[in-house]
């Protein structure tokens, strides 16, 4: 596709040619000259976008291209803001837990519950921080730019390089991503082959941490909320100190924030768990749905070539090869690489083709 500067230069040349020719011709020849120039301008415009594969989707993509460009650039710049927001909100919750929740637990709970809260809370915090750091700093992976013997399925229209299977172009990162799932503004990074596990683990442990805080601080939240509401009653109750009022407001903030995040992020985590069980990514889910409808009209059944069975999909995704890996690679921080290189993919042993009559 030609650049817009080239198009504008051709349009200016077209108008200059019109103004240069009009005074030299008589009035009777102007209509034909106008028609020729109109046809030439129409042909020039069509040459920018027309091809034999043009359809309604291509036209809509061209129309909405400025909007896509604006959204991509805003997402790229706001990614830093979103990452800072995640760090700020998470830090505020941790500070409130240490300053407000743990003192109440130490003074009112029995010893075994105190030990459980200390062990589980710090383990969950460690897993959350580790996986978020790895998800934001790990490169999702890109195909090699030079020529290679790696099998490819198509050519990227933007990078103009071969694309291996499950590779898609990210317009925000402006590069192709291996096994691309989506671009996450909360990570300011793409979710791909090498950091997909980190992203899902972060979502899972963040959801678990929010549920844990919501359940553990529920009674504290109710007491704090009632204390705040009682200050508006007549006659007023005994006045609370400034420190007590701050504790009440902090507990209300803690419970509302963690409960809201638990619901929203929990739904997202559940959705990604379903995709992992099916052996799909977010991008492949839309592609497979269209392919499933197309083959259904032909009386055929679509088979996902990357579906190895529900349990095997999870083992491949988590990198579990033996029983001890469930502890060392799943329940403890682990930086092991994912299965494969993201360039070639092994099909299920029981089926190679993707269609069945």
TrEMBL record:
Residues 154-286 form the Palmitoyltransferase DHHC domain. It is found in: Membrane. The chain crosses the membrane at residues 77-107, 113-133, 198-217, 252-276. It is a multi-pass membrane protein. Its main location: membrane. Its EC number is 2.3.1.225. The keyword Metal-binding does not apply. Keywords: Acyltransferase, Membrane, Transferase, Transmembrane, Transmembrane helix. The keyword Disulfide bond does not apply. One of its GO terms (molecular function) is protein-cysteine S-palmitoyltransferase activity. It catalyses: L-cysteinyl-[protein] + hexadecanoyl-CoA = S-hexadecanoyl-L-cysteinyl-[protein] + CoA. GO terms for cellular component: membrane. It comes from the Eukaryota. InterPro entries: Palmitoyltrfase_DHHC (IPR001594), PFA4/ZDH16/20/ERF2-like (IPR039859). The DHHC domain is required for palmitoyltransferase activity. Belongs to the DHHC palmitoyltransferase family. This is Palmitoyltransferase. It comes from Carassius auratus (Goldfish).
């Amino acid at each position: 596709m030609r650049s817009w500067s080239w198009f504008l230069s051709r349009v200016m040349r077209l108008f200059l040619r019109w103004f240069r020719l009009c005074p030299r011709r008589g009035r009777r020849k102007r209509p034909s000259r106008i028609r020729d120039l109109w046809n030439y301008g129409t042909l020039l415009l069509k040459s920018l976008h027309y091809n034999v594969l043009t359809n309604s989707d291509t036209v809509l993509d061209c129309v909405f291209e400025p909007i896509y460009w604006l959204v991509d650039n805003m997402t790229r710049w706001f990614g830093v803001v979103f990452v800072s927001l995640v760090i700020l909100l998470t830090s505020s919750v941790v500070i409130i837990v240490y300053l407000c929740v743990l003192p109440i637990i130490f003074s009112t709970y029995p010893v075994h519950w105190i030990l459980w809260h200390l062990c589980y809370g710090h383990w969950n915090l460690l897993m959350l921080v580790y996986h978020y750091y790895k998800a934001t700093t790990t490169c999702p992976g890109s195909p090699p730019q030079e020529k290679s013997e790696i099998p490819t399925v198509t050519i990227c229209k933007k990078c103009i390089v071969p694309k291996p299977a499950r590779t898609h172009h990210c317009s925000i990162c402006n590069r192709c991503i291996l096994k691309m799932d989506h671009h996450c503004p909360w990570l300011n990074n793409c979710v791909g082959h090498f950091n997909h596990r980190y992203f899902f683990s972060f979502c899972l442990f963040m959801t678990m941490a929010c549920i844990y805080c919501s359940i553990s601080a529920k009674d504290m939240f109710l007491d704090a909320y009632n204390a705040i509401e009682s200050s508006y009653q007549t006659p007023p109750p005994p006045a609370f100190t400034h420190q007590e009022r701050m504790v009440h407001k902090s507990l209300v903030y803690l419970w509302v924030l963690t409960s809201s995040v638990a619901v929203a992020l929990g739904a997202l985590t559940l959705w990604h768990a379903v995709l992992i069980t099916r052996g799909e990514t977010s991008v492949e889910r839309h592609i497979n749905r269209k392919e499933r409808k197309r083959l259904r009209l032909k009386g055929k059944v679509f088979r996902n070539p990357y579906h190895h069975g529900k349990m095997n999909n999870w083992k491949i995704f988590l990198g579990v090869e033996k029983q001890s890996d469930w502890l060392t690679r799943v329940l403890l921080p682990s930086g092991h690489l994912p299965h494969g290189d993201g360039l070639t993919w092994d099909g299920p042993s029981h089926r190679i083709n993707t269609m069945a009559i």
